[in-house]
From TrEMBL:
Gene3D superfamilies: 1.50.10.10. One of its GO terms (biological process) is carbohydrate metabolic process. This is Metal-independent alpha-mannosidase. The lineage of its organism: Bacteria, Bacillati, Actinomycetota, Actinomycetes, Micrococcales. It comes from Brachybacterium ginsengisoli. It holds the Pfam family Glyco_hydro_125. InterPro entries: 6-hairpin_glycosidase_sf, 6hp_glycosidase-like_sf, GH125.
Length: 447
């Protein structure tokens, strides 16, 4: 497992104390927040991160010994904040960039192996979560649920590393192969019914863990959006076009185009990435909006291109709530603000409120469980520093006396929670604390 230099952790602690000094919290609270960030950063490195013999970085999700493409990028994103913020010595930050570059190279390897898998094994040992049927047997895949975020997090992280540091050590030959694979998969899944061979079936499981229509998923009509079988929660899409997933994919393709043009010298592929991004964005504007509770336009969560839509939000990112955090929309955009208001209300069937917590949960966890990830996103998408602090305090107060963040926490009984060890949730706490301390996510955060 990896270790973070003690000099870096000392610098993080000092930066946090300085950045949080004027936020209005009492010294004990500020010290608690800073201490937790250090603990979570150390825990992520020492318990989830492996530097392989080939220099790539393999990151398990926590209590499951597999690497999710989405989770792994999110887990290490706080490290990029430290690089962007100039925290620590040049040598310390170079070590962080090396870990991030190694993670990206691992992403490219996995995407080349199977662009439809969401989670992978450390080696081709055929380990898996559960038995399923797909059109392709793959000993590397822990699970083969097709989710748009699996193809989005890598290009987005690569763009942010490159713009922050100029580093291109992740951009070898395998990057171009993976990029071409992403572009081909996106184009195929824009017309899922006629072009795609993908299906996913499991027997004897809840409906959210398999796809209907013999594994093909609900029927969709092409409209420029990209089909997905599963949400970022790993639960099946009720309708085939996930709106927040398409938002993030469009942004990632736009950023991929820049990398293909400026780093990989691949203008043909860059043009295709831009074309796909523009097509998705046009389709979002034309088909992704629905009427809100007051008649104003808000974003749907899923649509099928056939006239059906669903409004909800799920704690897992990409989510509607997280769109500004990801960089997909402006936090002050009227459509986003109206969507946010609806998400943080009973209009969202997965919004829960109780004695100790209120916020967004997920059909992936039991009723009345709010996710700390969603609480962190709520803070990361507001400019109110006092509210950010309140949310951090609330997350600390509802950790079930474990000192760690969890997956879902019961709104009336914080000692009732799912997943004692969930690294992504710990990292999102770090994201919010660093944000409150003025350590930006990327060089464009204040633009």
């Amino acid at each position: 497992m990896a270790q973070l230099p003690s000099t870096l952790l000392d610098a993080v602690h000092e930066r946090l104390l300085a950045g949080l000094s004027d936020v209005g919290g009492d010294p004990a609270t500020i010290d608690e927040i800073a201490g937790r960030v250090i603990s979570y950063l150390r825990n992520t490195a020492e318990t989830t991160v492996n530097v392989e013999d080939d220099g790539t970085t393999f990151v398990i999700t926590g209590d499951i010994p597999a690497m999710w493409l989405r989770d792994s990028a999110a887990q290490l994103t706080p490290l990029l904040r430290l690089v962007v913020g100039g925290v620590g010595s040049d040598e310390d930050r170079a070590e962080l960039v090396s870990l991030l570059s190694g993670l990206l190279r691992r992403h490219w390897q996995y995407i080349e192996i199977d662009p439809y898998a969401n989670a992978f094994n450390r080696g081709p040992d055929s380990s898996h979560w559960d038995q399923d049927e797909t059109e392709r047997q793959n000993p590397w895949a822990w699970e083969r649920k097709f989710e748009l975020d699996s193809l989005s997090y890598g290009p987005d992280l690569a763009w942010r590393v490159w713009t922050a540091t100029g580093d291109t050590s992740w951009a070898g030959e395998q990057f171009l192969i993976a990029a071409r694979t992403i572009l081909a998969t996106v184009a195929t899944e824009q017309r899922h019914e006629e072009r795609s061979e993908y299906f996913f079936r499991r027997s004897g499981v809840p409906a959210q863990d398999t796809l209907d229509r013999e594994g093909r998923g609900s029927l969709t009509t092409p409209n420029g959006l990209v089909w997905a079988g599963f949400r970022p929660s790993d639960d099946a899409c009720e309708l085939g076009y996930n709106i927040p997933g398409n938002h993030f994919l469009a942004l990632s393709l736009e950023r991929l185009a820049v990398l293909l043009e400026e780093v990989a010298d691949a203008p043909t592929e860059a043009a295709e990435a831009r074309r796909l991004s523009e097509e998705i964005r046009g389709a979002l504007a034309e088909h992704g909006l629905i009427d809100g509770p007051e008649g104003q336009k808000i974003w749907a969560y899923e649509i099928d291109g056939r006239g059906e839509h669903r409004f909800l939000d799920d704690a897992n990112v990409p989510s509607l709530l997280a769109l500004p955090y990801l960089g997909c929309v402006d936090a002050e955009d009227p459509v986003y603000l109206a969507t946010r208001e609806a998400v943080l209300s009973r209009r969202n069937p997965y919004y829960y409120a109780g004695l100790y917590l209120e916020g967004v949960g997920s059909p992936h966890t039991p009723k009345d469980h709010v996710w700390p990830i969603a609480k962190a996103v709520e803070g990361l998408t507001t400019s109110d520093r006092a509210e950010k602090l309140r949310l951090l305090q609330q997350m600390i107060a509802t950790d079930g006396d474990t000192g760690m963040m969890h997956e879902g926490v019961h709104v009336d009984e914080p000692t009732t929670f799912t997943r004692e060890w969930f690294s992504w949730s710990n990292s999102m706490f770090c994201e919010l604390a660093l944000d409150l301390a003025g350590v930006d996510r990327d060089l464009h955060a204040r633009a």
